[in-house]
Amino acid sequence: MHHFLSQVVAATGAFVNYMGSDDGFWGLAAAYFLMIFAEWLGYVLLKPGVYDHMDALNNIVINGIDYAFDFLISAIAPMVLYIWVFDHWRLIGPLPFLWSIPLAFVAHEICYYIDHRIGHRVGLFWAFHQVHHSSNEFNFTVAPRGFLIDGNIVLFLCAVPFAFLGLPPGIFLGMHAIKSIYGIFNHADYIPKLGILEEFIATPSNHRAHHGVQAKYIDKNYSQCTVILDRLLGTFQKEEERAIVGLITPYYDKNPIRTELAGLFWLRDRINSAPRWQDKWKYLWMPPEWTHDGRELSLSRDYIQDKEKSAVEAAE
C-alpha cells in the first residue's frame, strides 16, 4: 500500500511539474482543443442546429489573439516577480510536494476569487472582462474568451505573497494550468445539476448562474473550482430558473476585433457621457452599474421572457 501511494504521489508530482513547465502550455492547448472538438461533435450528433458555429469561431480567434499578448503581460511579468521573491525573500522552504499541492490549490482559489471579483466590480477591469461575458452562448469555446490583458494579471500579483511562504513557482503554475482545464469544463451547458456537489463545487450550473443577466445572478459565484469563498463572502447564488447568459445590454457582433474592443468603447461612451471630470474619473473605478446621473441599467421584460423561452427549448 505504501508503495502504491508513493507511486501516486510521484505521478501526481510529475504531472503538476509538467503542467507548470514550458511544455505545460502545449498540454493545456491540447486539452482545450480536444474538449472543444468532443463537445462540437456531441452537439452535431445529438443536438443538430443548436451549436452556434460563428460564435465558436469568434471565440477561438479571440483566444488566439489573447495568447499572443496575454501570456507575456498577465503571466510572465508577474511570475518574474514571484520567482525573484521565492529565490531571495522566502521565509521558509521550499515546501515539500505534499504540502505544496494543497497550499497551491487554496492559494489559487483565493487569488482567482480576488481577480475575478475585481474584474466585475471595477469599471476599467469590467471593460476588459466583459469580453468574456459578451457571448450569448455557454460552451467550451467561451471559457478562454477574453480581452488582451484580461488574463489574470491581478491573480498572479495576488499570488506573490505565497512565494514568501516557500510555494514553488512551478507548482503554482502547474495548479493554475490544471484548474484552467476545470474552468473550461464548467462552461458545459448540457451538464445537469450535480446534486449535493452544487453546494460546494463551482459546477457548470453554478457557473452558468455567474454568466446570467437576471438580477439575482449578477456578480455571484466568482470562484473557479469550489464555492467556499463565495459562501463565506456572500456571493454565492444557486441557479434557480435557468440563467440567461450574456450582458445586460446584449451583444451580437461576431467580429473578433470589434468584440475585443467593445468593452473599451463601452467605457469610452460612459466617460464621454459625464459632464464633470470628477465623474469621468469615477467611471474607471466605480462598479459598472454606477452612473453619474443615477440612471439604472436593466433588461427589458420582453427580452428576458424571450430568452427564457429559448433556454428552456434548448435544454429539452
Give the structure's gist in a few sentences:
The protein is mainly α. The protein is built from twelve helices and no strands.
Model description:
Helix 2 (24-46) packs parallel to helix 7 (169-185), helix 3 runs parallel beside helix 6 and helix 3 crosses helix 10. Helix content is 62%, strand content 0%. It is mostly helical. It has one domain.
In total, the number of domains comes to: 1
Termini separation: 47 Å
Please outline the major beta sheet. none
Instruction: Report the β-strand fraction as a percent range.
Output: under 5%
Helices and strands in order, then pairings?
Layout: H1 2-19, H2 24-46, H3 53-88, H4 97-121, H5 123-133, H6 153-164, H7 169-185, H8 204-210, H9 228-232, H10 256-273, H11 277-285, H12 301-315
